[in-house]
Specification:
By secondary structure, the protein is an alpha+beta fold. It has helices spanning 50-53, 55-85, 93-124, 142-159, 165-177, 180-187, 195-200, 244-251; strands spanning 2-3, 9-13, 16-21, 31-34, 210-212, 229-234, 253-257, 277-281, 293-295, 300-302, 309-311, 317-320, 332-334, 340-342. FE2/S2 (inorganic) cluster binds at residues 284, 286-287, 289, 303, 305-306, 308, 321-323.
């Protein structure tokens, strides 16, 4: 034992240090036993509430709680009705305002009804006396489990969860009704039409002219010089009334002209190009970024997202990177006025893989 530098005494036994302080602050890492502990003042006397004293007030509180839970049910129903009654119409900002207003009001009522009802239930009807909960180990011993059951049963008896059937059933109704707006809203995220068919078809079909992106002006074969690359959309895309972006995301194409002696065409695709002009989907087969970089000397297309590289001279096959398939080719020709037109839609789905894709 030795005197401390600040007047305290300390002892050391088998590596454990214990200090005794009268009122000075302890140093870190030392167990402290205070000499001036404050005595436990105990509980304040319980103050009975009006619902404890008057059975009529108790019944009134019970009705209020149930009313709040019913209000929550009404709010959830209102949210679903509002979602259907005030649909969002493209190009009408007022429809978005009405939809958000009533949907928000419904969900707010649904959540507030449960929250306020539960708080009022606990404040007005559940027992209000204070309890001491002794701390104990968290081992799952038999005693602990028995105690947990005891506490649960006491809570059940005090809250009246099984006894007050009206409150309990309206709470269950409110809890069941609250997620219903979420189900309705999330269900609507799925496309109304068959998504597999939507992924397999684009706007391209026989006779649709190839047009510049974004101006929409059609392209003549004579305008496509060797080394140039055109970003292409189907003519008429900008006049679409709805789903313009979705259609563009599938139909975007890159158009290039290669010297005929550089183009290696398979027999079954000999007629898909026009005088060295070829058109390939611009949507990367890895995860769908736009393949926008054309290297005119090598005739390679580069996807900037993860550096997949496609060889235009060889049916856009993958020569580097994580893409698993070549870019789909759009069969093209020219019409009687010399404008480039599609012969048909793509022969395979564009973009990344999806579960129902055959290949
Ligand atoms: S999206 Fe093109 S390489 Fe990843």
């Amino acid at each position: 034992m030795a005197d401390g530098h600040d007047g305290t005494t300390s002892g050391e036994t088998a590596g454990t240090v214990v200090e005794s302080h009268a009122s000075t602050a302890p140093s870190s890492g030392v167990a402290v036993e205070r000499a001036d502990r404050i005595a436990n003042p105990g509980f304040r006397p319980e103050r009975l509430r009006v619902t404890d004293l008057d059975p009529a007030k108790e019944r009134q509180a019970e009705r209020t709680v149930s009313g709040l839970f019913l209000l929550s049910v009404a709010g959830s129903v209102l949210a679903v009705v509002a979602y259907v009654a005030f649909p969002i119409v493209e190009g009408e900002p007022n429809s978005i305002r009405l939809n958000n207003l009533f949907l928000g009001l419904g969900i707010t009522l649904g959540l507030l009804g449960i929250g306020i009802g539960a708080v009022h239930w606990s404040k007005a009807l559940m027992h209000g006396h204070e309890l001491v909960e002794e701390r104990h180990g968290t081992r799952g011993s038999d005693d602990t489990r028995a105690k947990a059951i005891e506490v649960f049963q006491a809570g059940n008896a005090e809250s009246g969860f099984t006894r007050r059937r009206l409150v309990r059933n309206t709470l269950i109704g409110a809890l069941v009704a609250t997620p219903i707006p979420a189900i309705a809203i999330f269900r609507d995220l799925a496309p109304a039409e068959d998504p597999v068919a939507l992924l397999k078809q684009t706007m391209w079909k026989e006779g649709v002219r190839l047009a510049r992106d974004p101006s929409g002006t059609p392209i003549k074969a004579s305008e496509v010089t060797i080394g140039s690359a055109f970003h292409v959309i189907p003519e008429g895309l900008s006049e679409l009334e709805s789903h313009k972006l979705e259609e563009k995301a599938k139909a975007a194409v890159l158009l290039m002209r290669l010297p005929l002696d550089r183009l290696n065409e398979r027999d079954d695709r000999k007629g898909w190009s026009y005088d060295g002009i070829v058109a390939y989907s611009k949507i990367c087969t890895h995860v769908g970024c736009p393949v926008a970089l054309y290297e005119q000397q090598t005739h390679h297309l580069l996807c900037p997202c993860h550096q997949s590289e496609f060889d235009v001279a060889n049916h856009a096959e993958v020569i580097f990177g994580p893409a698993a398939r070549p870019l789909p080719q759009l069969p093209i020709t020219v019409d009687e006025e010399g404008y480039l037109v599609a012969q048909s839609d793509f022969a395979e789905p564009v973009g990344p893989s999806f579960w129902e894709r055959a290949l």
